[in-house]
Each structure stands twice: as structure tokens, then as C-alpha cells.
Write a structure and sequence with these properties.
Blueprint: E1 13-22, E2 25-32, E3 38-47, E4 50-54, E5 57-59, E6 69-70, E7 73-74, E8 76-78, H1 85-103
Antiparallel strand pairs: 1-2, 2-3, 3-4, 5-8, 6-7
Length: about 110
Amino acid sequence: MPDDTTTTKPMIEVTDWKPLTKNTLRGFCTVKFPMGLVVKDITVHVKGNRRWCGLPAKPQLNRDGSLNYKDGKLQYASILQWQDRELENRFSATVCRLIEEQYGHLEET
């Protein structure tokens, strides 16, 4: 990904924006990478002036195979992760910028 997310053409493509507002969640999108990888169901969040993306996750299961809930909320386990915070932040900034350019402003909470 480019170092400057505001002036360099991004090396990713954002498609299939599905708006859904619930708490910090603003919607879901698909991201296509140049090497051919397509990642679906990326979550996009906003809280105040902070914007970030979450990679897809799977529901956690208890030892008996039932869904794991904590305080009434389903728990999720990561299946993908960035190797460091800098890459994660650059990815989030790029995705959020592309969504706003293509689909309009992400509402603040």
C-alpha cells in the first residue's frame, strides 16, 4: 500500500459497500488486492472523528460447540490480521477514504 493515502493512487479497490448503522458500525465492504485476493465483509466503523476497518472474523465456539456469548454479546475470533499496527492503520485510512470518495461521507457517532 502507498505511504501517502491522500495523494497516491491506492493499490486496493473497494466494492460492494453495504451501509448499516449500529453503534460504531457504518457498514460492510469488499476489498480487492492487486495480487488477486478478495476480502469480503470488512467492517467499517466511526466514533467521533476516528474511522477504522475490521477484518472478517468468525464466531467463537465453546468446548461443546455452542456459540460463545459474553454479557449477551456473541464473541468473535480473528481469522486474518495485519503484521503490525502501522499497516492496519494505513489500510483503514485508505479503505475509509475510498468509501467516502465513492459512496459519500461516513456519518459520525
